Amino acid sequence: MKISIFGGGYVGLVQAAVLSEVGHDVTCVDINPRKVDALNRGLIPIYEPGLDVLVKQGLSKGLLTFTIDAEEAIQHATAIFIAVGTPPDEDGSADLQHVLKVAETIAQYMNEYKVIINKSTVPVGTGARVKSVVREQLKSRNVICEFDVVSNPEFLKEGAAVADCQRPDRIVIGVESDKAANIMREIYEHFNRNHEKIIQMDIRSAELTKYAANCMLATKISFMNEMANLAEKLGADIESVRQGIGSDPRIGYHFIYPGCGYGGSCFPKDINALLNTSRQVSYDAKILKAVDRVNQKQKQVLFNKLHQVFNGDLVGRTIALWGLSFKPETDDTREATSLVLINALLEAGVAVQAYDPQARAEVGNIYGDQEELTLTDKKEDALIAADALVIVTEWKEFRSPNFELIQQSLNYPIIVDGRNLYSPQKMKQLGFIYYGVGRGE
Ligand code: UGA
Question: 211-297: what CATH class?
Fold first, then answer.
């Protein structure tokens, strides 16, 4: 099937690559000519495991092309995805200008039936807005042309985006006509083979499903972080508690890891966007507010622990920091706890020596030539003559480090671990002063 996708960002790019892998003829449109040019040469602008192979494969088979030419892309396909960004506005609501602009562009060039599929995360009611933008544009062109709008939210996780897209656990489609539903079934036929994964509903419910999913996941994390803070005060170990509650299948083991707060381009943004939507319909969403507040506080936990370890005597110290991305297997640092911690440390007069396997360049761009922040090429180099080590992201290479070397390199054998990677008993035996989250003082 011929498919066009507007937006060569995380969602659009992964979707384009995976749909071309299963044999669809996909054109991906982006407004950035340099990005399009690079993509056509197989150069991927983001770090995402497995994506480069798929893109190169799609290009060489001639099933995947990148273009800046919107008109060509609109003529190319009956099914057109909108997968452009919806960054937060000043008030936290999703900024829909890019989505609506694409809708207008589609209507500007379409002359026959199209199904316009919204993949971007958009507030409830956006499907209806897209519909009216298209209708108005067609009217102003004096063109009579049938079309459908579909909501098809994306549930992929950064760092596992390709695998999530190749093996989705559900495909949510919000549709209003059988014609559009059948086209959606055709697009996803390959993924729906072994058992039914398509969950069909109305457009507004599909839009809310996306927010409800992310907000539920964020709620689980903030809840666990609250339990971890409580466990610390009560002398309990959150790791035992996590196993104790996760064994109940109604709760489950997934996504209940406490830590130093959630980040990324989705949870913080989506909680705020749904809070905004709630306000618009005069609903006081108390749980959502609390989830956000708990998370903001949790991002300060590491600094507070360091402050406590050194009895407030932080000026002039050097801290080694492992992990800058908001989670492992990505170079993305949007809303990352590492940035909150770095800012607090720099403000307190502390020098930071930081290492991350992928996100050094991103952080380098954010801080420029900040003298008190050194980004090292090896995790071991970050440790040299530092007063303590702080772990912010649970990259695999931090799981079994050379503890002897850590002890030799640091001025004091202090580890503050925001991801509970090590056993407090083992760390004690090794002679470390070790602080996890929710694991006792
Ligand atoms: C999230 C959702 O998990 C995806 O299903 C969704 O499609 C995506 O947002 C989106 O809306 O596009 P993502 O932001 O890539 O995916 O990352 P997650 O793996 O969900 O992690 C988010 C944050 O939660 C990270 O900072 C992570 O460290 C933290 N986290 C996760 C915890 O603190 N504890 C956990 O148990 C799990």
Answer: mainly alpha
